Amino acid sequence: MQIALEARNLVKRYPGVVAVNDVSFSVTEGICFGLLGPNGAGKTTTVEIIEGVTPATSGEVYYFGELAGRRFREEAGIQFQNTALQDYLTVRETLEMFQNLYDRHADLDRIIEDCSLGDLLDRDNRKLSGGQRQRLFLAVALVNEPRLVFLDEPTTGLDPQARRNFWTLVQRIQANGTTIILTTHYMDEAHVLCDEIAIMDAGRIIAGGPPDELLRNRYDGLVIELPLEDIAGDLDGIEHVIYENQGIVEIMSTDVSSSLDALASRVRNLNRIKIRQPNLEDLFLDLTGHSLRS
Q1: Coil, helix or strand at residue 28
Q2: By three-state DSSP, how is residue 198 classified?
Q3: Region 52-65: what's the mean pLDDT?
Q4: Residue 269: per-residue pLDDT
Q5: What is the pTM of this model?
Q6: Which phi and psi angles does 248 have, rounded to 5°?
Q7: Strand-pair category, 274-276 with 222-227
Q8: Whole-angstrom Cα distance, residue 138 to residue 91?
Q9: DSSP-derived 3-state class of residue 195
Q10: CA atoms of 179 and 193, how far apart (whole Å)
């Protein structure tokens, strides 16, 4: 497969701050690539540099082997975090208006089907729910038949059902051969959607690769979770206590049976213990010590 997009040594400086610090990565055609990190990590600035919205202090962006320029702008689609829609237009009129801004035109009927907008075509933009607006924003990003689509935190503020419905739409778009670059705060979202991820912190990429491969390389055990209020004694001698967060203690164990035996005399209620596989949020906390929503 070809390299659809490559960022080379991107830097963005503001007075007193280096928001993006020598960031490089490449995205293979047809995959969903996730750029992850907490607020202030530099991921949105990085994406805005690539999109051409924000100029870089230094560095270059390549699109299918050439410096990103007119071809890139014509063939890329963007769903921003926040997009203003024209009042008093219907969903159909909105799609037609945005499509007329491009020389490349996608089949609107297919986009309407892919984004599940068929029942909303005659509805005023002002009367759309949050999930319906996000589906429309995704459709707007697809009106020029893009080879590459940017989705910047597309499910922020959506309820769990709307988020999962949106995931299905993204998977449908990728199945059509479109390359996707996703920024998100939700690690479960990244694990479901992304073939590869890069984790940013303080303007740098600190880890990258396929999600499951990153987890296998980092962990060889399971996570034991228990409420802090159930602990009757100290946890001295218990292996790899990860952290206590919002009243929950997490322990990384390579031998769950031995860990449970050691906990038995120190925990008031064993019925509330949970055992699970390590996830991407564990990885992020382990690498940076930061909460994703900090």
Answers
A1: strand
A2: strand
A3: 96
A4: 81
A5: 0.88
A6: -120, 130
A7: antiparallel
A8: 12
A9: coil
A10: 12
